[in-house]
């Protein structure tokens, strides 16, 4: 029996479509340091502000999920919270972790119905993280892959849905936006000069007293009834958590990030993307970096600090002038991908739409002339700028959905 060439081509096309077809996996948005979820800030979106990226992408046919996790917690705890918010169940930070840091292992108020309970190895997700959110997703990938033990002799496996067993294939891709993969020198510099939590005063002035929670119930830190915002901030600044390594300040520092980079390495079945941002330029006379016109007013002082000062690692080595370029919060060089782990850098390549994507390496999607907050829509913009920012997210989500099954 003869088969017409046209029929053969049609059959081949169908087989190719099933084998290499687009995926339609949901996209999860993970906020960064000082971020908030959909039910906080009076419903004002972290992702996009008035542009509301989540609803915009949904209008284009994408399934988008936004999580809300501890704004100042460590990446370990933030990643655990992402898992249980999506999958559902009682948050469990692990017995070993909880005993080490003296926290509540299973905070009773952190029990979730699940935003996407069907999530598993056959139904993976795409993750996009802004700022510290990119670190958090990498931590989640690590927690999913590894089996953890509740004792030093590794005799007893953690009795945790997340930590007690290996989860293969649950993450399709990780995208970081303005993420301090190698840390930000701002964390080290601010800790030496002004209180790290000074940002909270600004935040409090902007949002009032009833819309925001530090979400540190696992530390036994709960806002008292009728407590003023300033009193809440003052207690937070004096909390013992800030003297440990189990907090955002350590993970965001250059030493803390180096420690994370040593074990949060790329996985061979995950696709990785990074967007970098910068709003500074080099002063020819001084060699320092100064903010350009696209740097928000309240970031300019910090931008100048990052653009003019080096920071020492614990081993005595020092960052150099390549670290001066920044987006007002994070050094641009740190945003490309993890490079400072004790065993070397993750592989990083420039994205080329003409070449097939390979899992297990970072694709740098390009440098954007936007500050740390404008890239998520938290700034005044004209219509041209609004459309440009929307196009960045729209186009990248298309890239994610074009990844082969």
Detailed description of the structure:
By secondary structure, the chain is of the alpha/beta class. It has a domain of 266 residues: Alpha/Beta hydrolase fold, catalytic domain (Rossmann fold, 3-Layer(aba) Sandwich). 31% of the residues lie in helices and 12% in strands. The chain contains twelve helices and eleven strands. The strands form three sheets. A seven-stranded parallel beta sheet has the order 2-1-5-6-7-11-10, with helices on both faces. Strand 1, helix 2 and strand 2 form a beta-alpha-beta unit. Helix 3 crosses helix 5. The radius of gyration is 22 Å and the shape is globular. 42% of the residues are buried.
Distinct helical segment count: 12
CATH architecture name of the domain at 22-183 and 213-220 and 256-280 and 331-401? 3-Layer(aba) Sandwich
| CATH overall fold name of the domain at 22-183 and 213-220 and 256-280 and 331-401 | Rossmann fold
- Briefly, what CATH class of the domain at 22-183 and 213-220 and 256-280 and 331-401? Alpha Beta
Task: Let me know the number of strands.
Answer: 11
Beta percentage is 5-15%
Helix vs. strand class: alpha/beta
* Sheet of most strands: 7 strands, parallel
Helix content: 25-40%
- Ends distance: 33 Å
**H-E string:** HEHEHEHEEHEHHHHHEEEHEEH
Question: What gyration radius follows from the Cα positions, in whole Å?
Answer: 22 Å
CATH homology group of the domain at 22-183 and 213-220 and 256-280 and 331-401: Alpha/Beta hydrolase fold, catalytic domain
């Amino acid at each position: 029996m003869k088969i017409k060439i046209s029929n053969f081509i049609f059959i081949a096309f169908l087989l190719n479509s099933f084998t290499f077809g687009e995926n339609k996996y949901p996209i999860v948005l993970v906020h960064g340091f000082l971020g908030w979820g959909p039910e906080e800030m009076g419903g004002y979106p972290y992702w996009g502000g008035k542009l509301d990226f989540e609803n915009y992408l949904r209008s284009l046919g994408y399934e988008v999920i936004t999580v809300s996790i501890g704004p100042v917690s460590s990446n370990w705890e933030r990643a655990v919270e992402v898992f249980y918010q999506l999958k559902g169940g009682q948050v469990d930070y692990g017995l070993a972790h909880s005993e080490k840091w003296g926290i509540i292992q299973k905070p009773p108020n952190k029990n979730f119905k699940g935003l996407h309970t069907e999530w598993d190895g056959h139904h993976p997700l795409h993750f996009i993280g802004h700022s510290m959110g990119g670190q958090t997703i990498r931590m989640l990938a690590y927690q999913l892959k590894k089996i953890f033990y509740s004792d030093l002799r590794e005799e007893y496996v953690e009795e945790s849905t997340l930590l007690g067993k290996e989860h293969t294939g649950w993450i399709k891709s990780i995208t970081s936006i303005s993420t301090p993969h190698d840390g930000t020198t701002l964390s080290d510099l601010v800790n030496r000069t002004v209180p790290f939590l000074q940002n909270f005063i600004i935040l409090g002035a902007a949002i009032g007293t009833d819309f925001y929670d530090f979400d540190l119930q696992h530390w036994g830190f709960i806002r008292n009834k009728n407590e003023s915002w300033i009193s809440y901030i003052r207690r937070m600044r004096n909390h013992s958590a800030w003297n440990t390594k189990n907090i955002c300040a350590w993970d965001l520092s250059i030493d803390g990030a180096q420690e994370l980079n040593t074990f949060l390495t790329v996985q061979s079945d995950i696709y990785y993307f990074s967007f970098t941002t910068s709003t500074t330029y080099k002063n020819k006379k001084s060699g320092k970096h100064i903010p350009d016109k696209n740097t928000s007013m309240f970031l300019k002082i910090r931008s100048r600090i990052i653009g003019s000062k080096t920071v020492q690692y614990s081993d005595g080595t020092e960052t150099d002038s390549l670290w001066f370029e920044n987006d007002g919060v994070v050094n641009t060089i740190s945003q490309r991908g993890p490079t400072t782990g004790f065993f070397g850098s993750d592989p990083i390549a420039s994205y080329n739409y003409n070449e097939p994507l390979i899992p297990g390496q970072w694709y740098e999607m390009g440098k954007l002339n936007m500050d740390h907050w404008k890239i998520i829509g938290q700034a005044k913009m004209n219509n041209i700028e609004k459309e440009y920012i929307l196009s960045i997210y729209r186009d990248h989500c298309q890239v994610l959905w074009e990844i082969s099954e």
